Amino acid sequence: KAGVTQTPRYLIKTRGQQVTLSCSPISGHRSVSWYQQTPGQGLQFLFEYFSETQRNKGNFPGRFSGRQFSNSRSEMNVSTLELGDSALYLCASRSGGGNTEAFFGQGTRLTVV
Amino acid sequence: QQQVKQSPQSLIVQKGGISIINCAYENTAFDYFPWYQQFPGKGPALLIAIRPDVSEKKEGRFTISFNKSAKQFSLHIMDSQPGDSATYFCAAAHSGTYKYIFGTGTRLKVLA
Predict the structure, then answer these.
(1) Do A100 and B43 touch (CB under 8 A)?
(2) Is any Cβ of chain A less than 8 angstroms from the Cβ of B46?
(3) Do A104 and B100 lie within an 8 Å CB cutoff?
């Protein structure tokens, strides 16, 4: 069974630009969560999608948004990038329906210059 | 109330020794406590998890001890190996939200 796939693995963007990151969950999993990992703040929850609906949202500005498609693939978008958005963005896949085991992808390393 | 406090920040253990990492939480609504292992350049990998209805769970060399009254839980790595050198994160979640609150991580180095 394939794991969680995140693309691209690395990304360099300029301040003010926008970026879209993609996550394909484990086959059959319906829940996708996104986390930001930085050395200073650690792992912080961004949002979770289940069956195309956002179920929960963390304390991030509105520049961070996401969506989930009918095949459970999810995208995360960050607009008007700031230097502080440089981080490893991780996607976690869960089967949903009460199962809380989350399996993470390798992440997308975003660098804002 | 949403914090999970993890200690120590870093840990050095001799090969064959026991590595112990501790976490504490405040929110009594948390009912799922996983531990993740992360190697450089990789995403966190689920190691072992526990729910409050048991006090201990063991999987191979990894054991979680859970103290509900103290709101603390810990990871014990028995017979630590150099390949265990990684960063370990504890987390807590309320199954109603599925949002994980992570500890700040412990960088473990096992000396050969």
Answers:
(1) no
(2) yes
(3) no
Q: What angle do CA A81, A82, A87 make, to 5 degrees?
A: 90
Looking up tokens 């001799």 gives: B14
Dist. CA B62–CA B43, nearest whole Å: 19
Which residue's entry shows tokens 């607009």?
A79
Report the pLDDT value the prediction gives residue A95, as an integer from 0 to 100.
Answer: 86
Distances (CA, A) of B94 to A45, A46, B30, B46, B101: 13, 16, 4, 17, 9
In angstroms, rounded to a whole number, what is the distance separating the alpha carbons of residues B4 and B24?
6
Question: Which residues of chain B have a CB within 8 Å of the CB of A107?
Answer: 42-43
pLDDT of residue B6: 97
Q: Which residues of chain B have pLDDT under 70?
A: 1
Q: First vs last Cα of chain A: how many Å apart?
A: 37
DSSP H helix total and E strand total for chain B: 0, 11
Question: Which amino acid, residue B79?
Answer: D
Residue range A38-61, pLDDT digits in tens: 998 999 999 999 999 998 899 999
Task: Please give the C-alpha separations between residue A77 and each of A20, A87, B88, B92, in angstroms, as whole numbers.
Answer: 4, 14, 28, 26
